[in-house]
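FORM 12-B: Structure-to-Sequence Request
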């Protein structure tokens, strides 16, 4: 697990953004030190003294060399900063997807992330799995970002900059992480009560590992005889109008696809670890872990609750 520091980039767009930021910081830092230093020097050197005679010092007007210098130098600085920023922006935004790059459709919901892999027949939530991109042979992942409700923002600080996720609009971004591992991120645009618990994870796999993950996710839901009673409760309640479980009658799309729920590390978009105790707590009353969540408590009896949780736990 890696942190979420913008100072530890782990892939192409984040690297370029950091290089640009450090360059801008260095130039503006030098200007700050020069201007601040001159100011402090003047304040101390020319401070009011007890023997001051109160007369104005000699004034200097109309020096062509001085006026020229303080016009031309700032213009050059602004020109350099602007062109490098435009160049980086262009390199990141205009990079065309290689023909065999992985395409993922990201849909922001209040308050979770939907990830669809149209070419692979995979749908998952909150934890985006992508292959590592070797800088020598880049295999970037291109994301198309859409919103089902309000404005969100997709941000995984170590992998790329923020991209807004806006209703009725399609934004594009790409990731090319150079090292495998888990990268954390979150929604970066206030989107309602549970904006703070709209977390996301990007799990970066070596290529063969990613192929195995895809293979497992493509399978229909596991059928476990021990969990039949729970499946019946699940399918008889309103769970199925919001959640899909591939290979069963459940085909709702308002909430996350649960076909391989147990392959995910967290529930409630990062609100809690995905273990049986939290899962039970969550199904019993989602508001306890995530106040304001749009998933209602289904008012199940304790035995029904146990059955549903054992069914969910069978969705590996
Ligand atoms: Cu979604 Cu903030």
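FORM 12-B RESPONSE
SEQUENCE OUT:
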């Amino acid at each position: 697990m890696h942190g979420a520091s913008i100072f530890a980039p782990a892939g192409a767009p984040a690297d370029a953004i950091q290089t640009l930021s450090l360059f801008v910081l260095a130039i503006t830092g030098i200007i700050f030190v020069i201007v601040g230093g001159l100011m402090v020097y003047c304040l101390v050197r020319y401070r009011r003294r007890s023997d001051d005679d109160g007369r104005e010092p000699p004034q200097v007007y109309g020096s062509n060399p001085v006026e020229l210098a303080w016009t031309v130098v700032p213009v050059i600085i602004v020109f350099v900063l602007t062109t490098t920023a435009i160049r980086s922006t262009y390199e990141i935004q205009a990079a065309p997807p290689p023909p065999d790059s992985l395409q993922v459709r990201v849909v922001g919901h209040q308050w979770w992330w939907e990830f669809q892999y149209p070419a692979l027949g995979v749908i998952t939530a909150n934890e985006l799995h992508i292959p590592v991109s070797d800088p020598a042979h880049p295999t970037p992942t291109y994301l198309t970002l859409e919103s089902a409700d309000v404005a969100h923002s997709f941000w995984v600080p170590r992998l790329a900059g923020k991209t807004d996720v806006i209703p009725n609009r399609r934004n594009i971004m790409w990731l090319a992480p150079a090292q495998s591992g888990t990268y954390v991120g979150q929604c970066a645009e206030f989107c309602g009560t549970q904006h703070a618990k709209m977390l996301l994870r990007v799990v970066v796999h070596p290529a063969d590992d990613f192929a195995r993950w895809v293979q497992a996710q493509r399978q229909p839901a596991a059928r476990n005889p021990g969990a039949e009673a729970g499946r019946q409760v699940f399918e008889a309640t309103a769970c199925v109008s919001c959640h899909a479980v591939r290979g069963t009658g459940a085909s709702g799309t308002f909430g996350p696809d649960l076909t391989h729920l147990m392959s995910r590390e967290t529930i409630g978009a990062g609100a809690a670890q995905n273990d049986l105790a939290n899962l039970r707590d969550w199904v019993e009353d989602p508001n306890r872990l995530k106040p304001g969540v749009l998933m209602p408590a289904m008012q199940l009896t304790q035995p029904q609750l146990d059955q549903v949780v054992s069914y969910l736990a069978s969705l590996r």
